[in-house]
Structure formats: structure tokens, C-alpha cells
Design a protein that fits this description.
Elements lengths: L22 E2 L3 H12 L7 E7 L4 E6 L11 H13 L4 E13 L4 E10 L7 H13 L4 E2 L3 E3 L11 H15 L2 E2 L3 E3 L5 E10 H11 L2 H10 L2 H13 L6 E2 L10 E2 L1 H17 L31 E8 L6 E10 L3 E10 L3 H18 L7 H7 L1
Helix pairs in contact: 1-9, 2-5, 2-6, 3-4, 6-7
């Protein structure tokens, strides 16, 4: 298989300029896909599609591209980019306790406040929090004559919001032998560090989240960037998606969310550009089909296609009549990198997945065959 890598040229991190009207290139793969939808009895108004060149100059397939559909877990791309833009790929979440006051070693009492410093580590588990509590105890604190002060978003384990997580933290502190006499309140960072925990890098967190479509991580990461409203604001204000083409209720993609294929392609195009500026590739934040463990491991596994598609899946069998989505980038010999957003609703997920894969395979064949990035080739070995 031909190995090709298309570097993305670095440029200023600003919203992309308006795109010119792209050339319409009618493909046999699009025609076959639309015909199969009709033959199977699927209503075309329940389907969304947009396939464009990376530079936005050529459209290879389009159906209801300005209509908002349920993206399911494709939403995680938006949540990921919002976090990357906020903190950068090498960011590590630190969660720590500070003592803001004097510790009486005889009575093991902190005369002051216990300060919880948190940026919203989305992969912190109960064991990590328990270890932090024991570190506080080993620092000589069994009683806090003051408040528990929270300085930022805090979640852990199955506790997806700060309010719920802090309530369980209070219970945990009591269980390990620490009593806080005051209340929980928000405040600024101050005091002396007595316990800390550091997460893996944000890029590693995001890749695992997207490869395995971990809803819990995406919900907690979303909490850290301002919830669904924070992600939606990023999409409209930074990416430039029309407000009428996006509406989010969950940052993982659960339940009812909406985004148009056009908005999704705009998101992907700016993400690829941003990753290039930071010496990264789509494969750093999304799985490679047929190569990486997770939701794409068993798809596009044939040698002619394996390692060609980098994408995020979405699946909601019980919502909107059955939702299956796929969005990402594919690499072709003759046409270079191509962005795609395929949204299928009101039908069986398994059928839609087969049709999505067939569409991409046919398109790859029409565009001179497959090409894969150097990173994909490395992972395949």
C-alpha cells in the first residue's frame, strides 16, 4: 500500500475565513449510497451527508448538509477540540489539597481551611481521591476548623458534576477520619500544598476517550470546559457554525443533540489545521479504522482500506429511531485527504454501519485507491 503523509502548514490560530463555493464532483459512490438508502426504504430527510476535500474546494457528496441531526458520539470531537484549545495537548490536570492555616500537631487540627484545587481531571477515579485524603491525614490533619474551599471544577469516578462529586468527597473525608467543621464554598487558591495527584496528558486522555467512546470521560471533560453550553459556544464563536445548526445537551453525545453535516465538516477542517500547528495529526486524537482498539477496530479491516480512515463513531440505537454516525478523514492517492460526515437516523445501526463503510470504500476506489499516513503505518506494524 502507498504510504503518504500530508503535512499541515502552520498558521495563526484564528477562526478560518469563509470558504468559497466548492466545486461539485458527482461520484458513483455517492449515487450508489443514495440509491441504496432509497431501495431500503429509508427516508432521505432522515439522513445527512457531506464529503469535501480538506481544503474545502471540492464536494464529493452532499445530502441535507445544513440540517441538524443527532451526532451521537461524534459530539466527542467537539468536546475534545474545546478542551485542546483551552489547555493544549500536553496539559496535565492537577488535583491537590492545600492547608490554609496552622496545623496543631498535638490535636491534629487545622485551624483554617482545607483548599481543594481542581481543574476537573476527567479520568480521576475514587482510588485517586482516597489516596489524596490519606495524604491529608498523614500531613497531620484529622480535624479542620474551617471550610472546605473548592477552587475549580471537580469530578471523579461516576460523579459527573462538581456538586455531586464534592458531596461524595465530604463523605469520603469522614470515612478516612477527617472532619471538616465548616461548609463547602468556592474561593481562590491559597495555602500550603499537602497532597496532589496529576493526570495523564490531555492528548492521551482524549485519544482513549475517542477510540473507546467513553461517555463518562467526555461528560466530565465537558464539565471542565463549561458543560454543553461551553462546547456549543466554542462551536459557534470559534469554529463559526451557525447557531441554528448546533444544539447540545450532553458533551458525550448521549440523548438529544443536534449538529449539521456542514458544521461537522467545519469542525473537522479547523481541528486538522489546529493539530498541524501543534505538530499533531488526526490520528493523535481519533482512532485509525482497522488498526486501533476500540469502536473502529473491526471496521475497514481489509488490506486495501486498513489504516486509511481516521474517524469517530456515534451510536444511539434507542434514540431518534436509531442513530449511527461516522465523521473523520480518509486518505486517497489521487485526491489527497478528504473530510466526511455521515449521519444516519431512523433505522437499524448495523445496516447503517455497513452502508457507511461501503460508501467510504467506493469513494477510496474512485479516488485512485488508499493512502495512509506514516503514523497509521507505524501503528499497523
Amino acid at each position: 500500500m502507498l504510504l503518504i503523509f500530508w503535512p499541515i502548514q502552520a498558521q495563526e490560530i484564528t477562526p478560518p475565513p469563509p470558504q468559497v463555493v466548492p466545486e461539485r464532483f458527482t461520484t458513483i459512490s455517492e449515487t450508489n449510497y443514495l440509491n441504496e438508502l432509497a431501495l431500503r426504504g429509508f427516508k432521505l430527510d432522515s439522513q445527512g451527508l457531506l464529503i469535501q476535500s480538506l481544503d474545502g474546494n471540492v464536494t464529493y457528496g452532499e445530502l441535507n448538509s445544513e440540517t441538524g441531526y443527532n451526532p451521537a458520539s461524534v459530539t466527542k470531537i467537539a468536546t475534545s477540540f474545546t478542551a485542546l484549545h483551552k489547555w493544549g495537548p500536553d496539559y496535565h490536570f492537577e488535583t491537590a489539597f492545600n492547608s490554609d492555616g496552622k496545623i496543631n500537631p498535638k490535636t491534629r487540627t487545622l485551624e483554617g481551611n482545607l483548599v481543594l484545587i481542581s481543574a476537573g481531571d476527567p479520568v480521576m477515579v475514587s482510588g485517586d481521591v482516597t489516596r489524596l485524603a490519606h495524604e491529608v491525614l498523614r500531613a497531620g490533619i484529622a480535624r479542620v476548623n474551617g471550610d472546605l474551599i473548592l477552587t475549580g471544577p471537580f469530578t471523579y469516578g461516576a460523579y459527573l458534576t462538581s456538586d455531586v462529586a464534592v458531596k461524595h468527597l465530604q463523605t469520603l473525608l469522614r470515612l478516612v477520619g477527617i472532619r471538616v467543621t465548616g461548609t463547602v464554598r468556592h474561593g481562590a487558591v491559597r495555602g500550603t500544598r499537602i497532597a496532589s495527584h496529576t493526570s495523564p496528558s490531555l492528548r492521551d486522555i482524549i485519544f482513549h476517550q475517542n477510540a473507546h467512546s467513553v461517555n463518562q470521560t467526555a461528560e466530565r471533560l465537558g464539565e471542565a470546559v463549561g458543560g454543553p453550553q461551553g462546547v456549543e459556544r466554542f462551536l459557534t464563536q470559534y469554529i463559526g457554525i451557525a447557531p441554528g445548526e448546533v444544539s447540545l445537551s450532553h458533551t458525550s453525545g448521549l440523548d438529544i443533540n443536534r449538529i449539521s453535516p456542514r458544521g461537522t465538516i467545519a469542525l473537522l477542517r479547523e481541528l486538522v489545521r489546529w493539530l498541524g500547528v501543534h505538530n499533531m495529526a488526526p490520528e493523535d486524537v481519533m482512532p485509525v479504522a482497522g488498526v486501533d482498539a476500540g469502536t473502529l477496530h473491526a471496521r475497514l479491516t481489509e488490506m486495501d482500506y486498513r489504516g486509511t480512515v481516521v474517524a469517530k463513531t456515534g451510536t444511539l440505537p434507542g434514540t431518534d429511531g436509531g442513530v449511527s454516525t461516522l465523521a473523520g478523514i480518509l486518505y486517497t492517492r489521487d485526491r489527497g485527504p478528504i473530510l466526511f460526515a455521515i449521519f444516519n437516523t431512523r433505522g437499524p445501526v448495523s445496516t447503517y454501519r455497513r452502508m457507511q463503510d461501503s460508501l467510504l470504500k467506493d469513494l477510496i476506489a474512485e479516488c485512485g485507491g488508499a493512502a495512509i499516513t506514516s503514523l497509521s503505518a507505524h501503528r499497523s506494524n
